[in-house]
Amino acid sequence: INVFYSGTVAAAAEGAFFGIPSVAVSAEHAGELGFEEPARLARKIIEQLLQWGLAGGQLVSINIPAPGPGRPRGVRVVRVSTQTIEDRFERQTDPQGRPIFWLTGDFAGTGEQDTDLSALREGFITVSPLRFDLTHYEMLAQMQQVPWTI
Predict the structure, then answer these.
(1) How far is CA 48 from CA 7, 80, 127, in A?
(2) What is the mean pLDDT for each group of 10 consecutive residues in the chain (150 residues)?
(3) What is the pTM for the complete model shown?
(4) Region at 57 (left for phi over 0; alpha for psi -120 to 50; beta for the rest)
(5) What is the structure's pLDDT at 47?
(6) What is the pLDDT of residue 70?
(7) Please, what's the largest Cα pairwise distance for the chain?
(8) In the chain, where do the E strands start and end?
(9) Which candidate in 1, 9, 114, 142 could, as Cys together with 24 as Cys, close a disulfide (CB 3.0–4.6 Å)?
């Protein structure tokens, strides 16, 4: 569900709106964040997407797992997760000694399978094709049958 809040996906979507083949790349954060290895991996995946035929106006999201033994385990092409995040606020203190509240949270449940989130947890690079049309077509057809009055 994070694609709705992602500035990275939004920036890539702008490119796709203008007919450019577009890819959003995110790296899972765990401890020290280095960009060299995620960038190398992302470049390899993007090169393969372009060879595959990623075309103008198409949008893909890539997630790179945090480094660790045996990671990444490979690449999985999966749908995006729709798990919600249970927000919580942690009370902390800023450098001037004032209280601040840091927004954190965890995904609610872990039951979804074959999603970007589940594959990332398993140490895989995820590739998810995205589209802009969020229309719920079944509901649209049903609502078009309502005899609306004003």
Answers:
(1) 24, 20, 11
(2) 88 97 92 85 98 97 93 96 82 94 73 88 96 93 97
(3) 0.83
(4) left
(5) 98
(6) 92
(7) 63
(8) 22-27, 59-64, 75-77, 85-93, 99-107, 125-130
(9) 9
The helix/strand/coil state of 28 is: coil
Paired residues of 127 in beta bridges: 62, 77
DSSP state of 34: -
- The answer to whether the Cα torsion of 135, 139, 141, 147 is positive or negative is negative
Residue 41 three-state SS: helix
Look at residues 10, 40, 11 and name the one whose alpha carbon lies nearest to residue 27. 40
d(CA 40, CA 144): 49
- Cα 91 to Cα 31, 85, 103, distances in angstroms: 21, 19, 9
**Long-range contacts: 18-21, Cβ < 8 Å, 24+?**
19/56, 19/57, 20/56, 20/57, 21/49, 21/50, 21/54, 21/55, 21/56, 21/57, 21/58
**Amino acid at residue number 16:** A
Among 18, 100, 8, smallest CA distance to 62 is for: 8
